[in-house]
Structures are given as structure tokens and as C-alpha cells.
Amino acid sequence: MKPRVMSLVIFTCVVGILIAPAQISFLNSAFSLIAVAIGAGAAGALNQWYEADLDALMKRTCLRPIPTGKITKNQALIFGIICSLLSIILLYFFSNFLSASILFITILFYFFIYTIWLKRRTSQNIVIGGAAGAFPPIIGWTIATNSLSFEPIILFLIIFFWTPSHSWALALFKNDDYKNANIPMLPVVSGIQLTKINILIYGVILFAVSLLPFLFNFVGFIYISASIVLGLYYVYLCYVLFLNKTKDNDSIIAKKIFLYSIIYLFLIFLIILLDKFI
């Protein structure tokens, strides 16, 4: 179920619930979050069912349950389908039809659009497919309000434009893994230098998008001050990677960007939450 990935997904969903201009009971919000967690885990399980052959070829994924024989592909498929249905039904019961529908679309998008259609076909797989990981704050907002507005869409855009630099940084220091599995990630298809250029471009775009909550009067000076500092350091790391000329250092800097990007996204959403309450 990819619990480490799921933890960030659930946190952004929690932020969506807590900053929404409506309140729901603790029981409903708790069970709604459990439903979203089950849905995220279901998508991860279905992804591993479909990509079991690729996972076995990569050092990063070869110890997952299917390649190691802890569970069979059929067990993973049945588990993924049951959890998908359970998550949607639970979210509908404890929340509303809109939230359940968006969760349903998210699972379908991640599995059919990203996993089956894009991942093995294009180096832009993570750019388009990254939309699946950007839906949780929207789901959180709709859990609380049963409606959509520009605020959760801005949160969606932050995650959407965060995903490419985060994923391509991983692809840089795991480049051999992706080559062995014949996955057309950007470094494999277009080379290291073009990947570094794209990481920098998306780092700059992310910095600009991270200013939108303040520009739309969604948050105040606490957020804008922190986001500028966090964002400038992100862009700085991406620029250092772009300027670097040695392969060994590329891997070191790319790993630093990857790890910092996780901290960055967590802090951005945490600061949004703190800003709204303070």
C-alpha cells in the first residue's frame, strides 16, 4: 500500500479539511480520512500488481511484496480492487458523493492513465500522471464543504508542479534502475543535462505557484515569508544541480533535492495550516 507515500497524501488531505470554511464532526472526518488512506493504498497495490515485472528489475523496488513472493499477483489484484471499492463506499457514507467521486477518479487516473498508459510510453509520464497525487487536498476540502473553490485548486497546483522536479531528481540518482527496467524516464530518454534543465524550470515554476495562496488572499504574511525562504532554497538546489558538471556530484545533489522536496511540501502545507489558524 506504499505507506510512506500515503502519509504525505493523507497529510495534504487533512490540511484540505482543516482550512475549509466548514466544520464536520470528528467521527466523520476521521473515517473519511481512513477511506482516503485505503483508496491511496489501493491505488498503490494495483500499481504494484501491474508493474510487478518492472519492480523485480529495479533495486529500489525489488523488495516489494510481489517480487519477493510474500503475496501473489492475484492476491494483490483482489486486494487492490476490494480496497478501491471499500474506500469509495466509505467516503460516500461518511462524507458526500462529490468527495467519493473525486477519490474514484483519482484511483482510476493513477492506475489507468499513469500506470498503464503513460509510465512505459513517455518521458512526460510523471508530469501528467502527477495529477493523481495532487487531488488529496481537493478531496479534503470537499469532505468538509461538499463544494469546490479556487483555494483547493491552488493547493492542487502546488503539488502538481512540485511532482516533476521531485520525481526527476529521484530518476537522476536511480538512473541505472530505470534503464534496467526500460522505463522511459526523462534522464533515460533525453539525457542528464536536459533533465537538470527541466528540474530547474519546474523548480522556478513551483516557486511562482507557491506564491498564489498569498496573491489570492488565501493566507497571510506568515505563509508568504516562509514560502519564499523555502522556495528560494529549492530553486538554489536545482540551480546548483544545473551548474554541476560531474556525474558523481549529480547523484549527490539530486538526492539532496529529492529529500528536501519531501520536507518542502510537508512544510508548505503545514505553514498554510498554521497561517490559517494563527
Description:
By secondary structure, the chain is an all-alpha fold. It folds into two domains: 148 residues, Tetracycline Repressor, domain 2; 130 residues. Helix 1 packs parallel to helix 15, helix 2 runs parallel beside helix 5 and helix 5 packs antiparallel against helix 8. The longest helix has 31 residues. It starts with a helix and ends with a helix. The mean pLDDT is 96.
Average pLDDT, to the nearest integer? 96
Rounded to the nearest angstrom, the radius of gyration is: 19 Å
Q: What name does the CATH topology of the largest domain carry?
A: Tetracycline Repressor, domain 2
Top CATH class of the largest domain: Mainly Alpha
Succession of helices and strands: HHHHHHHHHHHHHHH
Number of helices: 15
Helical fraction equals over 70%
Q: Domains counted in the coordinates: how many? A: 2
Number of strands: 0
CATH superfamily membership of the largest domain: UbiA prenyltransferase
Poorly predicted runs: none
Pairing-aware structural class of the strands and helices? mainly alpha
Portion of residues in beta strands equals under 5%
Biggest sheet, open or closed, and with what strands and sense? none
The best one-word shape is: flat
**CATH arch. level architecture of the largest domain:** Orthogonal Bundle
Descriptive keywords:
single chain, Tetracycline Repressor, domain 2, 278 residues, 2 domains
Sequence-ordered SSE layout with sheet pairings:
Blueprint: H1 3-19, H2 26-50, H3 52-55, H4 73-94, H5 97-118, H6 125-129, H7 131-134, H8 136-145, H9 150-173, H10 175-180, H11 186-190, H12 192-209, H13 212-215, H14 221-243, H15 247-277
Helix pairs in contact: 1-2, 1-8, 1-15, 2-4, 2-5, 2-8, 4-5, 5-8, 8-9, 9-12, 9-15, 12-14, 14-15
